[in-house]
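Hi all, posting the design record for the shared folder.

TITLE: backbone redesign
STEP: 1 of 1
STRUCTURE INPUT:
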């Protein structure tokens, strides 16, 4: 099968979150299932051409693409995704993509991704390459299914091309003023209260993707059910319920060539489930790095996250007094709301023997925290998939999570599973989004940490789990076939 994979970020070229990991890993795995995959991402100024061996495609040359009444000059540069034969097509338009960051709050944010979506289609036209499926990801590519079925419906090349739209986070919807209809050349008949592209008076790219794509999916099974309800559907739950027969959940996989304590290039001591001695050494190394006292009997709890309320920092702050009274240490890596950044700065100053924080992001430190921490806290209000809890399982770092989305799909609560007669639990979880529920789960984990035989069993259970891309890619191939059947 021929798959055009459209995303706005992909490892190793550009990354702000989990989408980049998906776009950089899934195409490689699809190739192993016999798919021919072409990946499309914008060519941001931050992408190093020499490092990634990116070259200009002279066969395609200049493409004039109209956005908001202006003709923009677009070019295609290409490379090969590392460890694969997947062709990467970089959409080059300096006017839109040579900015300080991947996503902006600029007034033409809509235009940037209108152009990207049109460029994907027009590149395929010039290549004369008809994909069986165009795999679209999140609101930035939400107009692609509409364009294929309407604006470019005249081109017989796409007569049998289906679209799959993956919702990575329903909360980000790409909503803009009605002027988008002109900018994107969308027929005004599609915009009316409750119409295909209208959401609360605005044009929603996310809604367009949901309405016009042949098949929809989210990045975990639990999340695919959660977004059908008003509290997590972000106003689109009614529409999603209408499309429920076409909505599926496929858990994101992880790349174990990058996240594996036996081979991880960022950690000083390698280890495995059969020999965890390297993990203690990493813990000592990590604590020394932050100038904190080391005691192998005091659990070290890691947090790597955006510091926002959605990630559970609201209830963490409420539970702060009780959490800091526990016999445990904390290392936090992340950035976000100024309020939470300042909270962790002050904690690091007030109780440096118990808390250290790094405000910002460091890939090396992220690996070191996964390897050196005993536990990993992820108390998100909602979490479409989450990857850090999956990394944690592999690293023998016991996750403590809220039972939502991908967190619920990947972490089995030790006490809950024991209650049913299975000693197969891999972590600790809580249902209610409250400070008390969070604290109770952390307290349970800290108490079990003192029982080394139980703790080792929980670690072993987690380290044996396989959340590689293979299973997920197989399910995507099934969805592609299903999408294709709707267009044949």
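Okay, here is what came back for every position:
SEQUENCE:
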């Amino acid at each position: 099968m021929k798959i055009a994979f459209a995303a706005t970020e992909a490892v190793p070229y550009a990354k702000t979150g989990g989408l980049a990991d998906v776009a950089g890993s899934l195409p490689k795995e699809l190739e192993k299932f016999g798919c021919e995959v072409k990946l499309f991402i914008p060519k941001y100024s931050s992408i190093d051409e020499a490092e990634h061996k990116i070259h200009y495609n002279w066969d395609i040359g200049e493409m004039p693409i109209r956005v908001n009444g202006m003709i923009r000059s677009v070019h295609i540069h290409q490379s090969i995704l590392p460890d694969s034969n997947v062709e990467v097509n970089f959409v080059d338009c300096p006017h839109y993509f040579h900015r300080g960051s991947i996503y902006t709050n600029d007034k033409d944010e809509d235009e940037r991704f209108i152009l990207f979506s049109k460029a994907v289609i027009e590149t395929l036209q010039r290549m004369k390459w008809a994909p069986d499926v165009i795999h679209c990801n999140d609101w930035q590519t939400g107009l692609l299914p509409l364009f294929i079925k309407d604006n470019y419906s005249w081109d017989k090349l796409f007569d049998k091309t289906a679209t799959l739209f993956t919702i990575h986070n329903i909360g980000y919807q790409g909503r803009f003023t009605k002027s988008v209809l002109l900018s994107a050349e969308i027929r005004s008949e599609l915009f009316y209260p409750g119409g295909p592209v209208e959401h609360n008076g605005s044009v929603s790219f996310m809604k367009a993707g949901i309405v016009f794509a042949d098949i929809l999916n989210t990045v975990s099974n639990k999340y695919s059910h959660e977004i059908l309800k008003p509290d997590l559907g972000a106003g689109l739950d009614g529409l999603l319920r209408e499309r429920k027969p076409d909505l599926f959940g496929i858990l994101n996989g992880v790349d174990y060539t990058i996240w594996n304590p036996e081979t991880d290039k960022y950690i000083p001591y390698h280890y495995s489930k059969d020999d965890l001695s390297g993990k203690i050494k990493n813990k000592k190394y990590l604590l020394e790095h932050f100038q904190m006292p080391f005691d192998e009997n005091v659990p070290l709890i890691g947090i790597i996250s955006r510091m926002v309320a959605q990630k559970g920092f609201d209830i963490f702050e409420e539970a702060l007094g009780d959490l800091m009274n526990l016999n445990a240490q904390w290392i936090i890596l992340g950035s976000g709301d100024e309020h939470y950044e300042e909270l962790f700065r002050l904690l690091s100053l007030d109780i440096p023997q118990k808390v250290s924080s790094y405000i910002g992001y460091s890939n090396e430190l992220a690996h070191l925290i996964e390897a050196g921490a005993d536990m990993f806290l992820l108390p998100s209000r909602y979490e479409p998939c989450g990857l850090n809890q999956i990394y944690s399982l592999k690293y023998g770092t016991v996750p403590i999570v809220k039972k939502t989305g991908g967190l619920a799909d990947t972490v089995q609560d030790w006490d809950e599973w024991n209650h049913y007669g299975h000693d197969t639990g891999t972590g600790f979880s809580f249902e209610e989004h409250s400070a008390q529920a969070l604290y109770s789960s952390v307290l349970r984990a800290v108490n079990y940490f003192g029982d080394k035989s139980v703790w080792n069993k929980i670690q072993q259970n987690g380290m044996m789990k396989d959340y590689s891309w293979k299973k997920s890619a197989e399910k995507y191939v099934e969805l592609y076939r299903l999408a294709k059947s709707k267009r044949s």
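COMMENT: The chain has two domains: 2-253+470-485, 277-466.
Let me know if anyone wants the other runs.
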